[in-house]
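> call design_seq(struct)
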């Protein structure tokens, strides 16, 4: 059996869990290609204008797998449906809808996990149901899920430790969802530019709260209920003292990020902040001009600090 996974959005939140769950069941996993102009164009065609760029790119990745399905014998495309993790902890509504939208748009076989704690649909239950639906035994499915979950936790921990070790005297904190910062079209050009300019990039989503119920985000907002935005705020609290500046990257038009980023920018007063909003108009000149100016400010601040010391 072969499963296709779109390399976009939710996949970046749980890369090991998804991959290992299928692999441990003996299922072959293939991914959509890296984001490219064809994927972007298809995503725009298969989306409504009003949706965010990240969602459009996701649709392009699904289209990429649908096109490859016959030639590569892909049996199913995996589109998780993720909604609530707790009564007061949810995710952006785009994640609720992905599976139903794809089923209604594309002529392909889709499978899902339905994670919605508000209806007692836990992650454990969702993966067990999926394994059984694919024809695997109850015990084999449970073992695969538990092992994959453990491997995801170990991966997160190792990533965090690596990031802490890599902290240098020239750090920039990147505040963006992993599906934005690691995407070839949306965040990667920014990451590459910073690294080419000898800055160490610290990712806000990789922080000490990933494995615990860290609530340090409450220092910035007590009533936030988007799970992935809470995690980004935990990263800001943990790293803001250790970095020279903060760069936010969001996609147009993202409701949660527009609200949360604006709130943080008003509250974090002691660091230079750059707020980048990426859209589907391919024009990098303006982006690089803004990044260059921001880096100039950081370098100047460093020089002034050196003089004062
Ligand atoms: S959080 Fe923002 S970028 Fe992410 S899916 Fe929702 S609207 Fe799109």
């Amino acid at each position: 059996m072969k499963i296709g996974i779109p390399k976009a959005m939710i996949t970046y939140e749980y890369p090991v869990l998804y991959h290992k769950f299928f692999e441990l069941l003996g299922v072959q996993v293939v991914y959509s290609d890296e984001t490219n102009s064809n994927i972007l164009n298809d995503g725009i065609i298969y989306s409504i204008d009003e949706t965010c760029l990240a969602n459009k790119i996701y649709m392009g990745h699904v289209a990429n797998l649908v096109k490859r399905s016959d030639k590569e014998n892909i049996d199913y495309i995996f589109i998780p449906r993720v909604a609530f993790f707790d009564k007061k902890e949810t995710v952006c509504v785009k994640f609720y809808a992905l599976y139903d939208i794809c089923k209604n748009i594309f002529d392909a076989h889709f499978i899902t996990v339905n994670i919605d704690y508000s209806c007692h649909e836990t992650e454990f239950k969702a993966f067990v149901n999926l394994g059984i639906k694919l024809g695997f035994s109850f015990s084999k499915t449970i073992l695969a899920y538990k092992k994959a979950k453990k491997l995801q936790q170990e991966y997160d921990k190792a990533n965090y430790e690596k990031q802490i070790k890599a902290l240098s005297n020239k750090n920039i904190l990147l505040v963006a969802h992993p599906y934005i910062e690691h995407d070839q079209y949306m965040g990667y050009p920014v990451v590459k530019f910073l690294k080419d300019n000898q800055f160490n990039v610290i990712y806000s989503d990789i922080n000490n709260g990933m494995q615990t119920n860290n609530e340090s985000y409450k220092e910035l907002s007590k009533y936030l209920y988007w799970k992935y935005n809470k995690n980004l705020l935990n990263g800001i609290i943990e790293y803001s003292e250790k970095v020279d500046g903060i760069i936010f990257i969001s996609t147009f038009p993202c409701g949660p990020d527009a609200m949360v980023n604006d709130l943080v920018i008003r509250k974090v007063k002691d660091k230079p902040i750059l707020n980048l909003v990426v859209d589907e108009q391919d024009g990098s000149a303006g982006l690089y001009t803004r990044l260059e100016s921001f880096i100039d400010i950081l370098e100047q601040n460093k020089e002034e600090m050196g003089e004062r010391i």
